[in-house]
């Protein structure tokens, strides 16, 4: 823990400290014998990627897991470090390879409530109210939720089963077994239907792109596969939300930036009380000149930077991220905290149209206060 973090932790109340620590994802890890390799685009055509990837991997004892051709041109394969080194040496068309890493959901502090029985009467969550959302029917809009899946039968969510897909290999398919993805989806577009909560862009179609397991963890290779799927199937005017991440990955950042030519992306800044440039895909919002990629920090009910939120120059928006009420797995509801909860507020706003400033937050250590995005 660095001095800045230690100082902020010492100033927290016991409840706030517990919430901040719970909202911090587990330390990300390298995944043994799993690598992501990216071709030089001027050397390998899009329709050549699959053939070349499989031939190269097989020649060095590897097995391809994913092929990418709509974002980065490359592949992920199970193979040893020595085999990857030999493969790169034998194939100058490969620009770089990086070891696969663990991705985590960002923000799980709080408690969920099981579904069943009489659904609660509808109310507007404080965050949705703060950004002036929840008033415009968005049933013709689509949000891609790259996360732990979505509850397929939640009465408060307009789920698109036809386009939803799993990249974890779960026997439950794209169904949310964690709760995180369902919570994110509800903040974006929970229905205006007299029960539960209402989303920023009510009634929006939410597509589950499941890349995280029941523990809220996944691989960067699987996350890139999810981004690849959105790039191949998304349309202009649609929005993707990524409330997940970990350490730096050039391949993941490059995939997000490429997919942003198709749909807009909202990225959670992270919960480490750290500069977001040290984390992917969060840092993709800071290195892009595109207006389609936005990294989001978390604000409190008093419009200050949340104690756990990452920060840094280049973050344009802060959205509500503390004690956010939304939908949950198994037809339930939950109150959670994290930049994971902040990012979908911006995703919903982008579905509604142009995002405007509703003021700036206080307590931002980078000296560049983030704007609170509103309708």
UniProtKB/TrEMBL annotation:
<feature type="active site" description="Charge relay system">
    <location>
        <position position="340"/>
    </location>
</feature>
<feature type="active site" description="Charge relay system">
    <location>
        <position position="147"/>
    </location>
</feature>
<feature type="domain" description="Peptidase S8/S53">
    <location>
        <begin position="145"/>
        <end position="350"/>
    </location>
</feature>
<comment type="similarity">
    <text>Belongs to the peptidase S8 family.</text>
</comment>
<keyword id="KW-0732">Signal</keyword>
<dbReference type="InterPro" id="IPR015500">
    <property type="entry name" value="Peptidase_S8_subtilisin-rel"/>
</dbReference>
<dbReference type="GO" id="GO:0004252">
    <property type="term" value="F:serine-type endopeptidase activity"/>
</dbReference>
<keyword id="KW-0378">Hydrolase</keyword>
<keyword id="KW-0645">Protease</keyword>
<feature type="signal peptide">
    <location>
        <begin position="1"/>
        <end position="28"/>
    </location>
</feature>
<dbReference type="InterPro" id="IPR022398">
    <property type="entry name" value="Peptidase_S8_His-AS"/>
</dbReference>
<dbReference type="InterPro" id="IPR037045">
    <property type="entry name" value="S8pro/Inhibitor_I9_sf"/>
</dbReference>
<dbReference type="GO" id="GO:0006508">
    <property type="term" value="P:proteolysis"/>
</dbReference>
<dbReference type="InterPro" id="IPR050131">
    <property type="entry name" value="Peptidase_S8_subtilisin-like"/>
</dbReference>
<dbReference type="Pfam" id="PF00082">
    <property type="entry name" value="Peptidase_S8"/>
</dbReference>
<dbReference type="InterPro" id="IPR000209">
    <property type="entry name" value="Peptidase_S8/S53_dom"/>
</dbReference>
<feature type="active site" description="Charge relay system">
    <location>
        <position position="180"/>
    </location>
</feature>
<keyword id="KW-0720">Serine protease</keyword>
<dbReference type="InterPro" id="IPR036852">
    <property type="entry name" value="Peptidase_S8/S53_dom_sf"/>
</dbReference>
<dbReference type="GO" id="GO:0005615">
    <property type="term" value="C:extracellular space"/>
</dbReference>
<protein>
    <submittedName>
        <fullName>S8 family serine peptidase</fullName>
    </submittedName>
</protein>
């Amino acid at each position: 823990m660095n001095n800045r973090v230690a100082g902020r932790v010492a100033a927290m109340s016991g409840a706030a400290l517990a919430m901040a620590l719970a909202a911090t994802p587990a330390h990300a890890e390298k995944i043994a014998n799993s690598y992501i390799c990216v071709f030089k685009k001027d050397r390998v055509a899009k329709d050549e990627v699959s053939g070349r990837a499989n031939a190269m991997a097989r020649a060095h004892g590897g097995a391809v897991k994913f092929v990418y051709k709509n974002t980065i041109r490359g592949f992920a394969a199970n193979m040893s470090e020595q085999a990857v080194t030999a493969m790169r040496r034998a194939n100058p068309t490969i620009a770089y390879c990086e070891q696969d890493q663990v991705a985590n959901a960002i923000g799980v502090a709080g408690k969920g409530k099981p579904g069943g029985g009489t659904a609660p009467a509808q109310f507007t969550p404080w965050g949705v109210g703060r950004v002036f959302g929840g008033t415009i029917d968005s049933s013709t809009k689509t949000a891609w939720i790259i996360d732990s899946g979505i509850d397929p039968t939640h009465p408060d969510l307009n789920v698109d089963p036809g386009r939803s897909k799993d990249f974890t290999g779960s026997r439950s398919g794209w169904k949310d077994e964690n709760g995180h993805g369902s919570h994110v989806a509800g903040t974006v577009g929970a229905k205006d239907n007299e029960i539960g909560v209402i989303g920023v862009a009510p009634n929006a179609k939410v597509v589950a792109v499941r890349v995280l397991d029941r523990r809220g963890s996944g691989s960067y290779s699987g996350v890139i596969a999810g981004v690849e799927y959105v790039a191949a199937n998304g349309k202009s005017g649609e929005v993707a939300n990524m409330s997940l991440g970990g350490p730096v990955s050039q391949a993941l950042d490059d995939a997000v930036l490429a997919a942003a030519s198709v749909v807009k992306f909202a990225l959670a800044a992270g919960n480490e009380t750290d500069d977001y440039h040290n984390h992917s895909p969060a840092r993709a919002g800071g290195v892009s000149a595109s207006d389609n990629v936005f990294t989001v920090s978390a604000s409190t009910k008093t419009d200050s930077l949340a104690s756990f939120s990452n920060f840094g120059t280049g973050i344009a928006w802060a959205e509500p991220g503390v004690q956010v009420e939304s939908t949950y797995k198994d037809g339930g509801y939950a109150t959670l905290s994290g930049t994971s909860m902040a990012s979908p507020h911006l995703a919903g706003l982008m579905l509604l149209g142009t995002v405007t400033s509703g003021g700036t937050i206080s307590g931002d250590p980078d000296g560049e206060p983030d704007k609170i995005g509103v309708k």
